[in-house]
Design a protein that fits this description.
Elements lengths: L1 H21 L3 H21 L3 H26 L10 H24 L11 H7 L1 H12 L1 H25 L1
Helix pairs in contact: 1-2, 2-3
Length: 167
């Protein structure tokens, strides 16, 4: 039953990701991206990471996509015409297939992660996902967390300045 749910979710995620790049209307592409994010959240739930699934839904499928749709409507892109970039798309497809084959070869030849960490499944069961992530974020990774916060603040201020200049 789990395998059927995984394959069905993966199929929907791949199809909606293809529609993200194939749709001519940017709003339809953004809505297909929301569908892809929701499928990723289902995959996180299948991996027993409910906190990551909730963050995926709230942050990416919610807040980030609202911002993306706001920017699309602010720029008034409309439909994008069909370009004659068939050589570039063919080269990109060949490059993507080559990267997929190389990644598959590397994963089959060696260990996926290489080393084990100090966080085991018993530790996760005793503390919980959210507590371990919060402890790591606010102790070991405090500086990168604060740098990301400052970068997001600068991006918000920059977006407001750019949008006010045209009004």
């Amino acid at each position: 039953m789990e395998a059927i749910l995984f394959y069905l979710t993966a199929l929907v995620a791949i199809v909606s990701a293809i529609f993200v790049i194939k749709c001519r209307n940017p709003i339809n592409s953004a809505l297909n991206l929301v569908s892809t994010f929701i499928c990723l959240a289902v995959l996180y739930i299948m991996l027993e990471c409910p906190f990551m699934a909730a963050i995926q839904i709230m942050v990416y499928a919610g807040a980030i996509m609202v911002l993306v749709i706001f920017v699309i409507m602010l720029l008034n892109l409309g439909s994008i015409g069909k370009s004659s970039n068939s050589r570039g798309m063919a080269a990109g497809g060949v490059l993507a297939a080559l990267m997929l084959l190389l990644t598959n070869a590397f994963l089959r030849r060696g260990d996926v992660s290489g080393t084990g960490g100090e966080v085991t499944s018993e530790l996760i069961k005793s503390y919980g996902h959210t507590e371990l992530i919060g402890k790591a974020m606010f102790t070991d990774f405090l500086l990168p967390f604060e740098i990301a916060s400052i970068l997001l603040l600068v991006a918000i201020v920059g977006a407001v300045i750019i949008s006010k200049r045209d009004v």
